[in-house]
Amino acid sequence: MKIAATTLGETAGDLFSQTLRLGYFLSTVSLVAIFVVTLVVQLRSNHYNPIFYWTVILSTSMAGTTMSDFMNRDASARYLAKGTDALGWGPQGLGVGYPVGAAVLVTLLVTVFLAWRATGLPFNINRIDTFRGEVLFWAAILMSNTLGTSMGDFLSDSSGLGYLGGALLITTVLAVLAIATQVRWMPNVLIFWLAFVLTRPLGATVGDFFTKPIAKGGLGLGTYGTSFVLVAILGSLMIHSAAREKRRRLSRHIPA
């Protein structure tokens, strides 16, 4: 579900900013607003609701895509479709580049974790049961998804690995982390957060591989079709997860 959400976040973010030509600035403002709305709904819920939870995950992925693009890119022809000289209203992008952008985002993510640690609240998501803990959790998710987009774009555009090569590299690292869950001296909470960050660049590279033109190393399926398929996949998984959670909650009230 996380990979589906992050891949959809990449394709949907690109759909708003590039296909619909809203630009990185307007798309970021709009998607951050959507994130805030979904987060308020999640925070007001008094129990775990898979629909609310995964909607916020998706909104952070979409917002993270355009936030990263706005930070790292500019209006040069390298990032624009053929025949396009501008995207949307407002600043076209800060153009700081992937290394600087990643350094800024790593700093922000570490700052969130340090603030989280200073509160004494647990990092284990199964033990987050306070408003402040949830706010810190979602702040970390937003920063990790934005950082993950930068990492994925760097692997795809600048490292020479291409979309498929970047996806295979991250998949290999995630496989190593899966094996590491069986190693007693490595905390599972640390493995969780490493995997959580890495699923975002995986989604970025896979999403770009599906949508980008064949001439650039992609499959050329476009943002509309790819996003529609991913919405269907994620929506089905969310409904299944909600039904399972409902059965679990009902079983707690059935006498033995």
Account of the protein in words:
The protein has 256 residues and is mainly α. It has eight helices and no strands. The chain has one domain (2-252). The radius of gyration is 19 Å and the shape is globular.
Low-pLDDT ranges: none
- The percentage helix is over 70%
Q: Globular, elongated, flat, extended or rod-shaped: what is the shape?
A: globular
Task: Kindly estimate the percentage of residues that lie in beta strands according to DSSP.
Answer: under 5%
Q: Major sheet, described briefly?
A: none
Number of strands: 0
As for the number of domains, it is 1
> What is the number of helices?
8
What's the Cα radius of gyration?
19 Å
Q: Calculate the mean pLDDT score and round it.
A: 88
Report how far apart the termini are: 33 Å
Please write the string of helix (H) and strand (E) elements: HHHHHHHH
Helix/strand-derived class? mainly alpha
Write a compact overview of the structure shown.
It contains 8 helices and no strands. With 256 residues, the chain is mainly α.
Spell out the blueprint of helices and strands.
Layout: H1 2-19, H2 23-44, H3 50-72, H4 98-119, H5 131-158, H6 162-180, H7 188-211, H8 223-252
Descriptive keywords:
0% strand, mainly alpha, globular, 256 residues
